[in-house]
Amino acid sequence: MENNHIDQQFKEASKHSEEPTVFPGFDKVWEKVEEKLDQKKEKKKIIPVWFPYGIAASLIVGLGALYFLNKKETAEPVKPLIVETKPSIEKTHIDTHIAKIDEITKKNIQKEKNKVHTSVERVITYINPVPEPLREPNLSNIPSPPPAIEHHMETSDGVKNIEEVVMTGYGIKREVATTSSSVSTVSEMLSGTVPGVTITKPGKDTNIRIRGMSTINGSTEQPLVVVNGIPTTIDGLKEIHPERIKGVTVLKPEESSALYGSKAANGVIVVKTKHLRKAEKERLEELYNKNLKEAEKKPVEKEKKFPKAGQLTAGEVNDFSKWEYWKDIAAPSLDQYKKTWKFYPDRRVSVQLTNKNKKPVIGEKIKLLDDKKNVIWEAVSDNLGNAELWINPIEVELSDSKNYYLSDASGQIISNTVNEFKNGQNLIVLDKPCLEKRKLDLAFVVDATGSMGDEITYLQSELLDVLRKVESNLENYEIRYGSVFYRDKGDEYITRRFDFSDKAEDLIKFIKQQRAAGGGDTPEAVVEALQVSIDELEWSQGNSTKIMFLILDAPPHQSEENIQKLYDKIKTAARKGITIIPLAASDTNKETEYLMRTFALLTNGTYTFLTNDSGIGNNHIKPTIDSYEVEKLNSLLLRLILQRATLPECTKGISNENINKKMETEIDRQSDPKTVIFPNPTKGMIKIRTTYKIEELYIYDVAGKIIMRKENLEEGKNTIDMTPYPQGIYLVRVRNNKNWETFKVIKN
């Protein structure tokens, strides 16, 4: 072919180099050029003498530049490579190009020998102990690139791949070991990859918030952004391209306030970037100063003032302190309540669990089975080792079983003979250790409709006081706090929740921000509130005390569907070991009182209510009971919490002295008892000496729950065996005619 002399000239030029110069793919490309030239020759077209030299020079320049560009350690696509073919190129220019390309080639070969492959990664510092990796971008919608062209180089070890190059219509992209990303903003980079960060509308118009109290309270305030030590705003963060960022650290409000003060109340995003230009720094500072000026213009909301705690008065009705239930409600009214709500807990199976050392077995899951081994009720033993189970507590679910069994959580039968409570407790000894530590989950579910407006600020004040006192009384306990405020359908919200946190101050902030509004009709969204509080709050999974105060003044919406939902939620609460303690506010009617008392019985709780003694709020209907003791609401709530949360000593001594208020008052007022009980303390056997016949004798636990009953004991000396019961404080009440005497007995 006529153009062979070009190839010869190129080879002559390469002889002057120290190593043979081989351009990747040169032979294939040159064959294509020759083919084109031959085709032109066959068409008998006249090719100017300069044309082959121009083609060769262009190819040499292009391939040399290609080889050189491939050595750049970057993943960014380069601009389109444009090669111009000029009409006149002298031979001296060609020689100059060849020499230059030869020099570049030798340098690249040397670099290839000494090359150390490094990977480029974006580093994000997480607030979590175990960092989560950045989420890989979705590549499913990206078209596959054309097959890569393999290039080789000759070395002393033989022929090997230089690197893989993907040819695109816009240029050349070198594939390196890097964290690939198609994001265009920092918010897109953080979206879904940084725990604790909530991002809405990732992109230019975006909101970034760090989860914590600000998000719980519905705040729209943005976190502080610090870029290379310069405070700025989210707008400043938006102007930084992700590829310029070296690392990101996210600090939650409680961690950032110590470092950055009050301006970090909504958390901090700390960003480290590559070198910032002076103009960029000034822009970040400008945005921050602008934000400060706008904040100064906003009206400052005054902190809500609460009344002094300790003003509301309350009482307690513990239906477990009664031998027979519902005798204090008139039959016609009771029949109406049963017909309306279907609830009627009457057949109780009470279980007392102890270990071989007479310590209560706490947090043990117990199942009540029928004769077909179907589970009909589940419960968890409390801090006194007591579990309460029920047969047919609702009319729509009836069991005709002749025999019942008790099993543990695994289904293993622990008792083949089950007594209903009227025939005595089921005393079971298990081979379990004494529990020395237990978590406490404490939740407040509050009706926040307009009808609560007369008392809600006082209730908030009492709750805040209780939280502080719980912290001081249970210093060595792990305590978590949660809350649900609810209204009704059609209001601003139906439920608003604060999930469990071990920081009481966070719940205090949440409670302070709630207001009473909405409602209108008498029933409220009680069903929805129970669904959220029982199913959606993150109750502890392990062995823990779980207490939920349900504060309300109105019943749920009544329907067959809602009745079934209520029953399902109450049954779930019992299975999880959640004790429900209702607190009835002003204007609570008798029907609601009945329903709340059933909730308390079915979950091993007690019923509480506000009274008129404080003079605060609307009228409070007295409960249907013969007598009760009035006490300060904050003291009552604290006592009920401590009764259920305090663990017994695993060695010697009695730790739980939070006695039922009514019985404690009876003991204090007792002046000249006619009955003598000894020995006290006792290891199990107690003797009772009287000068009269005892018509009834009851033994209660520290919370006021009946655990034993005796009738018609002759005057003189009688012996009661308490050996099977766990160590602790017990209350003994004896009756002669209409006179009651109450005594505190310590069992070691």
UniProtKB/TrEMBL annotation:
Pfam families: Plug, Por_Secre_tail, VWA_4. SMART domains: VWA. PROSITE patterns: TONB_DEPENDENT_REC_3, VWFA. Its main location: membrane. InterPro entries: HMCN1-like_VWA (IPR056861), Plug_dom (IPR012910), Plug_dom_sf (IPR037066), Secre_tail (IPR026444), Thr-specific_kinase-like (IPR052969), TonB-dep_rcpt-like (IPR039426), VWF_A (IPR002035), vWFA_dom_sf (IPR036465). The chain crosses the membrane at residues 49-69. Residues 441-628 form the VWFA domain. It is found in: Cell outer membrane; Secreted. One of its GO terms (molecular function) is protein serine/threonine kinase activity. The keyword rRNA processing does not apply. GO terms for cellular component: cell outer membrane; cytoplasm. It is a multi-pass membrane protein. This is Por secretion system C-terminal sorting domain-containing protein. It comes from Chryseobacterium contaminans.
